[in-house]
């Protein structure tokens, strides 16, 4: 028994070490990922629920390394945060997203593009002016850019987040609260923020219609959003049952595998064209 226990402890440590080693190595690789052009963007459509027309596309970052293959953003974004690289990465993502989406916006394929921000971006005092510069450089209307910040990010430092969000809003961009419902923010805190949209976290959307049909959180999120005059988006919509309940509850926009996964640029354009010709 004691020996078993000892072996388990050893196994744990080996696992920890391996994990730690991977993190350290990835962190080192991440430093050169931008210059080596190892990043690429995929785009997932957000649709108006009633008309099923495409609203925005959300830019999602992908990293492919020679030694580790594809590394998930859930793994490398926190590393980029810790190392401070996230500021440069975010600026690259905004730049590349605007470059990529501009012709789509001009052709009327999409209304705009959404980009995710990290906690450190919200305490980057230079970001709002930089975003303004990028919009002018690409000739994209500010209202066509949505910046998504998670509820956790905002709650980490509400004061700083509020300042940056107001400065971003002053540039004319739209702001969205991502992963809504997971961050325990109060209504009072939300009210003080210049927000246009909330995105209900996919963990709540996944339960919709699955037997219990429990939708208390989703229902109240939609109510809160509408009472505050916000657009409400549901992410992670995977089934027709999910969609039917969101429709009944009056959700404004939907995003998820039921419609399209995140797509490479050429595939997104094809997807839009196919949808239009239906
Ligand atoms: P997120 O912003 O909440 O993005 C939604 C995630 O859900 C994406 O995962 C997307 O591929 C996935 N998803 C989309 N539809 C469905 C669905 O129907 N079901 C399920 N189960 N999942 C769905 P992804 O691309 O792996 O990104 C994970 C997270 O990494 C993102 O969560 C975001 O927090 C972060 N991230 C991705 N790209 C960037 C970036 O450019 N900058 C920053 N700061 N964070 C990023
Ligand atoms: Ca997002
Ligand atoms: Ca989300
Ligand atoms: Ca998330």
Explain what the structure shows:
The chain contains 11 helices and 9 strands. With 278 residues, the protein is of the alpha/beta class. Strands 1-2-4-5-6-7-8-9 form an 8-stranded mixed β-barrel, surrounded by 4 helices. α4 links the parallel β4 and β5 (145-150). α1 (2-33) crosses α2 (73-83) and α4 (127-138) packs parallel to α6 (158-170). The radius of gyration is 20 Å and the shape is globular. The model has no long low-confidence stretch (mean pLDDT 92). Bound molecules: ligand C2E and calcium ion (3 copies). One calcium ion binds at residues 178-179, 199, 201, 235.
SSE string: HEEEHHEHEHHEHEHHEHEH
- Number of separate strands: 9
Helix content: 40-55%
Q: Per DSSP, what share of the residues sits in E-state strands of 2 or more residues?
A: 15-25%
How would you name the oligomeric state of the polypeptide chains in this document? single chain
What structural class should be given to the helix and strand makeup? alpha/beta
Shape: globular
Radius of gyration, whole Å: 20 Å
What ligand species are in this complex? ligand C2E, calcium ion
Mean pLDDT: 92
Strand order of the largest sheet: 1-2-4-5-6-7-8-9
Major sheet summary line:
8 strands, mixed, barrel
- Uncertain segments are none
What is the first-to-last residue Cα distance? 65 Å
How many H/I helices? 11
Protein name: EAL domain-containing protein
Domain EAL: 23-276
GO molecular function: cyclic-guanylate-specific phosphodiesterase activity
GO cellular component, one term: membrane
């Amino acid at each position: 028994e004691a020996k078993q226990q000892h072996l388990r402890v050893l196994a744990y440590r080996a696992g920890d070490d391996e994990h730690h080693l991977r993190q350290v190595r990835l962190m080192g690789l991440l430093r050169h990922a931008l210059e080596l052009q190892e990043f690429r963007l995929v785009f997932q459509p957000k649709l108006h629920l009633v008309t099923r027309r495409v609203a925005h596309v959300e830019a999602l970052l992908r990293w492919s390394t020679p030694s580790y293959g594809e590394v998930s953003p859930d793994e490398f974004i926190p590393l980029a945060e810790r190392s401070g690289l996230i500021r440069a990465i975010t600026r690259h993502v905004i730049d590349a997203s605007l470059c990529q989406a501009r012709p789509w916006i001009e052709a009327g394929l999409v209304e705009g593009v959404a980009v995710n921000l990290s906690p450190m971006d919200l305490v980057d005092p230079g970001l709002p002016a930089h975003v303004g510069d990028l919009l002018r450089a690409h000739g994209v209307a500010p209202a066509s850019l949505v910046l998504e910040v998670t509820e956790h990010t905002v709650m980490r430092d509400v004061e700083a987040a509020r300042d940056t969000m107001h400065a971003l809003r002053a540039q004319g961009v739209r702001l969205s609260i991502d992963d809504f419902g997971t961050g325990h923010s109060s209504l009072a805190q939300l009210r003080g923020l210049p927000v246009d949209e909330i995105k209900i976290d996919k963990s709540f959307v996944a339960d919709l219609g699955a037997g219990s049909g429990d939708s208390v959180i989703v229902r109240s999120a939609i109510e809160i959003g509408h009472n505050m005059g916000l657009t409400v988006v549901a992410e992670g919509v995977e089934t027709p049952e999910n969609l039917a309940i969101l429709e009944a509850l009056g959700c404004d926009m939907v995003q998820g595998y039921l419609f399209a996964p995140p797509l490479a640029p050429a595939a997104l354009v094809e997807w839009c064209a196919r949808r239009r010709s239906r």
